[in-house]
Amino acid sequence: MSAKAGPPSTDATTALPDRFRRWFKKRGWRPRSHQLDLIAETKPGGSVLLIAPTGAGKTLAGFLPSLIDLADAPDAHGGVHTLYLSPLKALAVDIARNLEAPITEMELPIAVETRTGDTSQAKRQRQKLHPPQILMTTPEQLALLLASAEAEFLFGNLKRVIVDELHAIAPTKRGDLLALGIARLRRLSPALSIAGLSATVKNPDDLRRWLAPQRIGEELAAVITVPGGARPEIIVHETSEHLPWSGHAARHAIPAIYQAIKEHKLTLVFVNTRFIAEFLFQALWETNDDNLPIALHHGSLDVNQRRKVEAAMAAGRLRAVICTATLDLGIDWGDVDLVVHMGSPKGSSRLLQRIGRANHRMDEPSKAIIVPGNRFEVIECEATRSAAMAGQQDTEPLQAGALDVLAQHVLGMACAAPFEVADLHAEITGAAPYRHLGFEEFTDVVNFVATGGYALKSYDRFARIRQTKDGLWRIANPRAAQQYRMNVGTIVEADMLRVRLTRSRSRRSGLTGPVSRGGRVLGEIEDYFASTLRPGDTFAFGGEILRFETLAENEVLATRSHTQDAKVPSYAGGRMPLTTDVAATVRDMIANPARWTELPGQVREWLEIQRHRSVLPGHDELLVETFPRAGKHWMVCYPFEGRNAHQTLGMLLTRRMERAGLNPLGFVANDYALTIWCLGDIDARIGAGLFSLDELFDEDMLGDDLEEWLLESSLMKRMFRNCAIIAGLIEKRFPGQEKTGRQMTISSDLIYDVLRRHEPDHLLLRAARADAAKGLLDVSRVGSMLARVKGRIVHQPLDRISPLAVPVILEIGREPVHGQARNALLEEASSALVEEAMGSADV
Amino acid sequence: MSDTACPVPAMPGVAARRRAQAVEVLGHELVIDPTGAVWWPSEAMLIVADLHLEKGSSRAARGYLVPPYDTSAALAGLVALRQRYQPKAVLALGDTFHDRRAGERMAPRDADTLASLSQGCDWLWIAGNHDREAPALIRGDWLSEWRCGSLVFRHEPTAAAAPGEIAGHLHPVAKIQVRGRVLRCRCVVTDGSRAVLPAFGAYTGGLNICDAAFEPVMARQLMRLWMLGDEAVYPVGQDMLLPDRSVQSRRKATLASQPQATARKAATKP
Questions:
Q1: Which of B46, B10, B33 is nearest to B187 (CA)?
Q2: Is A727 on the interface with B (CB under 8 A)?
Q3: DSSP per residue over A750-811, as a string?
Q4: What is the per-residue pLDDT for A648?
Q5: Is A799 in the same domain as A759?
Q6: Which domain holds residue B238?
Q7: Residue-averaged pLDDT of chain A
Q8: Among the four residues A485, A610, B36, B104, which has the most C-beta atoms within 10 Å?
C-alpha cells in the first residue's frame, strides 16, 4: 500500500482532518484526488466503485474514510466498524500489516485484526465476543460469521465494507456467495456504505451494479476512475529464427529472454500453463551461464516453496521469476521492471493486469515483451498488443448467480435465524447476481435445501430445514447446522497427490526391491495426471525432471532422472481460451491484407500462400475446407472461438456426421480451428445434394444433440460434482480426513446417473448445465458463433491440405508418444505436412 | 471416475462384443449379464449381489439428501431381468438391504414392486453384513449360505481357498486405460474355481480388484475378468489393470529444506 505523490488536489485541506493532513505531510506525500473523492463519496447507505491501475494507492484510499471516522470516536461503535474482504487470505494479512503504519504513526486507537482459515480457534472465539473495529477476512469466513447467532451483534453497527480485487472475485461463484453475504450485511446494518476496489474492466457498470443494492429497478454505485498512468511499452518479440507451426513453448526465443533478464533488475515471466513454466525453467537453466538467481512459481508447488520464492523476490534476491496465474493478484512482491509473456496472453485485460505487475509507479511506463509460440500466435499477440496499447478491456460480462451457491446461502441463513420465504427472496434479489431470480425458482431452492426438492416426496422426515406453524423456516436439527459449517465455501479442489522425491533405486539391487519412502515433498499433481503415469515415465516438476517410480497411498514417489527430455505432462487446467474481442481482431487481421504490414514476413508469406491455395476466412464468415489426405476425407473449419468451444463443437458435429453416414473417425481442435476426419467423401455427398454444410452447422445442434451429449460427458459429471458439493448434497473432502470407506459415501457420478434418469430438470442439473454453458464447454460461445455465421458458410474444396490448416492438423501429432522418439516424430510429421501445404514456396 | 456401467469403445485386446458372456466356475456354466446379474441356465436361476436397497435414504437420514431413486432403479433392473430370463428362482447374495431399518424407510411404491417381484418364482435371500436379519417385508428363506451341488453361495468371500464359492460383498470394479482415457467399470472376476460378483445397487461404489482385499480370495495371475458396459460384457486381460489412487490425505508437508524451485545455482550464486 502506498500513497506516492499524486496530482495536487485543491480541496485537500477541507476533506482531511488535521491529524491526517499532518501525517501525509510528514511522509512527504500529498493525498491524491481519488483518495479524497472516495472520502466524499462515502455516505451512509451509499456504494462506490474505485477503478484504478496498480500503484495508485487504491488500498489506502479504501481505508481512509474508516480511519477518519474511527479517529475521533473509536469506541462509539459496538461491533465491527469496517469489514475488508479479499479473495486471498495472504492479501488480507498483508493489508492488515500495512495498515499498522498509518495507525501507529497517527496514534489512532484502532484495532485491526484478520480472520482466515488459519486463525486459531481461541482468537476466533475472542473475536466474536470482542470484535476489532476493522476486520479483514475472506468471503467464506464472512459466510460463517453471518450464519452464526452473533451476526447481529458483530455487524449490527457495521459502517463500511471494502471489497478488494472486485474484478477478480465478482465473476466467480465466490463472488456470488459474497454478494449474498453483503445483502445480508445490508439487512443487519441498512446504513452501511460499500466501496469496491477494482482494476480496469470492460464493463464497469457490471461492477457498479454488483456493489449497489438492487431494490426497485436497477441501481449503480458511484464510480471514481483513476486514469491509467503512462502508456505501457509492449513489444511482440520478433525472431529471425524459423517460427514454429504449432506448440507454445517458444524455444526459439530463449536466448533473447535470457538476455532481457540480464538487462533488467527483476523480470516476471508469465506463462499460460504449468508445463510451459517447467519447460522454460529447464531451458533457462541450461542457458544460465551467469548463475542468475531465477525462480519458479506455480500452483502445484508446495505452498512453503512458493512463500520462499515470494520472500526472496520481495527482498530483491532474485533476477527473474517464471510464474503462472498464481502471481496475477495481490501483494507487490518487489521491484519488477520487466514483464515477459510467453505465448499469447489470450486477452488484453489479462495482459494489462500482468503488465501492471511491472513498475508500480503510475508515471513510468511499464515494459513488456510478448513472445509468440507459433505462427498463429503471432497474429493473436499482435491483436492483443494493439488492444492493450489502446487501453481496450475485454473482461467477460457478469453472469447470473449460481443456484448451488444460493442453496448453500439459504441453509446458512436458516442457521442464523428463522426466515420467511418472501422476505428472504426480497433480500437475496437485492444482490445483483440474483436480481432476476423469480419467486418460484427461489422456492425451488428452499425446497431443495429442505428435502432435496425431489418430485418423490420421501425425505420429509429427514428435512434439514422445516416450516413451522408461524410460516417461518427453521433449521431442523443441530447436525444440519454443523454440516453447513463443514461444507461452506465454493472452492472445490481437484484430487491431488503429493509428489515425494525419494532416493534413486540402485540398479544393481534389481527392480523388485522396495522404493525408499523417505525424501522431501516437492508439491502436488492432479490425481488424473498421476493416473496416466507408468513406472519409468519421466515428467518435469518443480524445476527438475523426475522419474515416476510408484504410488504409495496418497503419494507419488519419484526419483531424480538424468534424461534431458521429459514425457510431456499436459495440464488441461489453466489453459484459457482467447477472449471474444481478441478472436474478432484476429479474424479481422487475417481477412484484411492491408493490416498484414503489422505482421512479420514469415507470417505474411504464410497468409499469402493461403490466399493463393485456398481462400482467407472472412471476418464474419465461417471458412470450411475439405480435402482428401492419406486415404481419408478431412474437414477443417475456422471459427476462432477458443479450444473449449471448438471441442464442444467437434463433439456435436461428429454426432451429426455419424448420423449422416460419413463415418467420422476423430477430431482435433486448437484455439482457432477444428478438424474432423472421416471415411465418407464429404465433397461427393455435397455434390450429390445429399449433405449440406448449412444444415451441418445449423444452430439446432444446440438442442437435443447438445443435451444428449452433455448428459454423457465426463465434464458435465465433474461440474455436477462441484455443484453437489457446494449445494451440500455430498460432503466436501478435507485435508487429513480419512476416506470413510466405500459403504459410506456415494460417488457423485452414481448420483448423477440416477438423477438424470429420474428427474432431468432437477435444480442441481440445471445448475450444472448453467456452469457447462459458460465454463469448460463454452456452449454460449458456440451458440453465438453459429448465429453469426448462419448463411455465411464458405465451402472451399481442395485437393490437399491448406497452409492455414497445418497448425491444427499438427495437434494430432501431439498425442503422447513416449521417450526420445517424440520430437523426431513430430518434426518429421511437421516438415512433411508443411511441404504438402506450401509446396516449394516456403519452408 | 465412474463405477457405473460405462460405454466401452472398441478396446484393443478385447474380444468381440457380445451382450452376455458365459463363464465356467468349477465346470458350471454361468452367464454374465451386462447389468452385473448372473444367469445360471441349468438351474434357471438369476443371481444378484449387493443391491443395497435404501442406501440413498440412509444418507438422507444423515443429512445428505441424495436423490431417493436408487431403490426404484435397482428394482426396475430386477423387473427387466425377470422378464428377460424368466427364472424359476432368484438368489440375492446378501446386502440386499443397506441397513436394518431399510425396510421401514422404503417408499410404499417400491415396497409394492418388491412384493410383486417375489410372486411367481422362488426367492433365496442370503444374509449380508448390512442385513443380518430379514426385514419384515420379506418373504422367503433368509439363509447364511446356500449350497447347490458343488457350488456354494455366500455373501462374503472366504479369505482362503474356497472352490465353488460364488460371493459378493467386495463390489469389484476394474480400471483400465484405453487411448489415454481411463475407464473404471464394475466387473465379474473368477479364477475358474470361484467367482465374485459386482454390486447391483444404483449407489454402490466399487473396490478396485487390484486392492489388497482381493489377494486372499484369488491369485492375481489367475484372475479372469469381465467388465460391464452399457449393453455388453467385455473380457479384459489382467495385464491391463490399473490400481486406484485413493486420495486419503491432503496434509501438506512442512518443509525445512531449500526450495528446489529457486534453482540449484541460486545457492551458489556469487
A1: B33
A2: no
A3: HHHHHHHHH-TT-HHHHHHHHHHHHTTT-HHHHHHHHHHHTT-EEEEE-SS--GGGHHHHHG
A4: 84
A5: no
A6: 21-243
A7: 83
A8: B36
In this structure, the answer to whether residues A316 and A267 fall within a common structural domain is yes
In DSSP terms, A223 is beta-bridged to A49
The residue type found at A50 is: L
- Grid look-up 464458405 returns A794
Beta bridge partners of B177: B182
Q: Which residues of A543-556 are buried (b: 16+ CB within 10 A; e: fewer)?
A: bbbbbbbebeebbb
- Number of domains forming the structure of chain B: 1
Tell whether B236 is covered by a domain: yes
Q: Is residue B89 part of a domain?
A: yes
- Which cell is A146 given? 453471518
pLDDT for position A821: 30
| Chains A, B: CB pairs < 8 Å | 207
Would A439 be classed as within a structural domain? yes
Name the pLDDT band for A14 (thresholds 50, 70, 90).
Answer: low
State the burial class of residue A392 (Cβ atoms within 10 Å of its Cβ: 0-12, 13-18, 19+). middle
pLDDT at A321: 93
3-state secondary structure of A665: strand
Candidates A289, A556, A709, A751, partner chain B, best to mutate (most B CBs within 10 A): A751
Name the residue facing A729 among B57, B65, B255 (closest C-beta).
B65
CATH of the domain at B131: 3.60.21
The span from the CA of A593 to the CA of A585, in Å, is 13
Contact A616, A610 (CB under 8 A): yes
Question: Could you tell me the three cell numbers for A213?
Answer: 443494492
CA closest to A732 among chain B residues: B64
Neighbouring C-beta atoms of residue A745, cutoff 10 Å: 16
Q: How far is Cα B29 from Cα B166, in angstroms, rounded to an integer?
A: 13
CA distance B101 to B204: 18
Domain that holds residue A353: 233-389
Nearest by CB: A542 against B130, B247, B261: B261
**pLDDT single digits (tens) A137-166:** 999 999 999 999 999 999 999 999 999 999
Q: Kindly list the distances between the CA atom of residue A147 and the CA atoms of A119, A143, A152, A410, A449, in Å, as whole numbers in the listed order.
A: 18, 6, 10, 10, 15
> Cell numbers at residue A402, please?
449460481
Q: How far is CA A383 from the centre of its chain?
A: 21
ipTM of the complex in this document: 0.82
- Choose among A609, A610, A605, A642: nearest CA to A623: A610
In a domain, A68, yes or no: yes
d(CA A357, CA A394): 18
B126 close to B160: Cβ distance less than 8 angstroms: no
Instruction: Estimate to the nearest angstrom the gap between the alpha carbon of A561 and the chain centroid.
Output: 33
Interchain contact, B260 vs A543, CB within 8 Å: yes
Q: Are the beta carbons of B144 and B124 closer than 8 angstroms?
A: no
- And the C-alpha cell for A319? 533476477
Contact status, residue A334 vs residue A266, Cβ threshold 8 Å = yes
- B163 within some domain: yes
DSSP for residue B124:
E
Question: Within this chain, do residues A310 and A189 fall inside the same structural domain, yes or no?
Answer: no
DSSP category for residue B230: S
Chain A environment of B246 (Cβ under 8 Å): 553-554, 739
pLDDT over 90 at B156, yes or no = yes
- B2, B66, B247 ranked by CB distance to A495: nearest: B247
CA dist B252 and A304 (Å) reads 9
Separation between Cα atoms, residue B79 and residue B73, nearest integer Å: 10
Q: How far apart are CA B4 and CA B185, in angstroms?
A: 6
- Whether residues B182 and A528 touch (CB distance < 8 A) is answered with yes
Last residue of some domain: A225, A257, A290? A225
A474 three-state secondary structure: strand
Q: Show which of A181, A208, A225 is a domain's final residue.
A: A225
Amino acid at A706: L
Count: domains in chain A: 4
